[in-house]
Amino acid sequence: MTHAVEIRDLHKYFGDNEVLKGIDFTVEPGQVVCVIGPSGSGKSTLLRCVNMLEVPTKGQVFINGAELTDPDADIDAARRHVGMVFQQFNLFPHLTALQNVMIAQQRVLGRGKNEAEIIARENLNKVGVAEKCDAYPGQLSGGQQQRVAIARALAMNPDLMLFDEPTSALDPELVGDVLTVMRKLAEEGMTMLVVTHEMGFAREVADRVVFMDGGVIVEDGEPSKVIGNPSHERTRTFLHRVL
Ligand code: ADP
Ligand code: MG
């Protein structure tokens, strides 16, 4: 079976600073993998290397068996299958929710306006903000904006979704709505790689939890193991701080 994501001996330097020091892991189709670890451990850099928003210094990245780190790879084509949701929602402030979900469909996938609108409405409905189609981002709560951002990613029909701390910028009472949408996606079989500090979500939804520290993977296994009964002192120390 082809891995949804395969990372082989990934290294990333920023100048002299080696931020990723040899990362190996895989995500299988339909799996949810949560990446946890302290601030500065390289989680965002790893996620950004998966879709080549950062170019790895060394090592290989494969998505659905295609090597993105191959110099001849069609990065744009590969990225079309990958949705990304950031901590900051990055919606266009001058476009409505509906327009935000339509624009990449039209520009990147070449869908016509009617088709893009139908798909945008379906996805806004799916994330529970159908009634906010005509609102601008500034008129929406953070939780609603993040759900629009998820709808925007889903409208591109990704077979892999990357989430980088999608709830970290939200007021606590809005976190649950976004996690509910992510849980639903997981149940539908979406392949997901999620950087998160939400240990409840990781424990309940993830098939695997990866603990990173200092640019390496310290521990990778089932949530009940990595969160419930970690093997490494570094993992225990981290969990004591966040739980
Ligand atoms: P995390 O997401 O786990 O908090 P990051 O991947 O954001 O960690 O960062 C890991 C390290 O890489 C940090 O020391 C950070 O300062 C550094 N870093 C991240 N992005 C850049 C960049 N574009 N240029 C220079 N250093 C960076
Ligand atoms: Mg980060």
UniProtKB/TrEMBL annotation:
<feature type="domain" description="ABC transporter">
    <location>
        <begin position="5"/>
        <end position="239"/>
    </location>
</feature>
<dbReference type="InterPro" id="IPR030679">
    <property type="entry name" value="ABC_ATPase_HisP-typ"/>
</dbReference>
<keyword id="KW-0547">Nucleotide-binding</keyword>
<dbReference type="InterPro" id="IPR003439">
    <property type="entry name" value="ABC_transporter-like_ATP-bd"/>
</dbReference>
<protein>
    <recommendedName>
        <fullName>ABC-type polar-amino-acid transporter</fullName>
        <ecNumber>7.4.2.1</ecNumber>
    </recommendedName>
</protein>
<dbReference type="GO" id="GO:0016887">
    <property type="term" value="F:ATP hydrolysis activity"/>
</dbReference>
<keyword id="KW-0813">Transport</keyword>
<keyword id="KW-0067">ATP-binding</keyword>
<keyword id="KW-1003">Cell membrane</keyword>
<dbReference type="GO" id="GO:0005524">
    <property type="term" value="F:ATP binding"/>
</dbReference>
<dbReference type="InterPro" id="IPR017871">
    <property type="entry name" value="ABC_transporter-like_CS"/>
</dbReference>
<dbReference type="InterPro" id="IPR003593">
    <property type="entry name" value="AAA+_ATPase"/>
</dbReference>
<keyword id="KW-0029">Amino-acid transport</keyword>
<comment type="similarity">
    <text>Belongs to the ABC transporter superfamily.</text>
</comment>
<dbReference type="GO" id="GO:0015426">
    <property type="term" value="F:ATPase-coupled polar amino acid-transporter activity"/>
</dbReference>
<keyword id="KW-0472">Membrane</keyword>
<dbReference type="InterPro" id="IPR050086">
    <property type="entry name" value="MetN_ABC_transporter-like"/>
</dbReference>
<dbReference type="Pfam" id="PF00005">
    <property type="entry name" value="ABC_tran"/>
</dbReference>
<dbReference type="InterPro" id="IPR027417">
    <property type="entry name" value="P-loop_NTPase"/>
</dbReference>
<dbReference type="GO" id="GO:0005886">
    <property type="term" value="C:plasma membrane"/>
</dbReference>
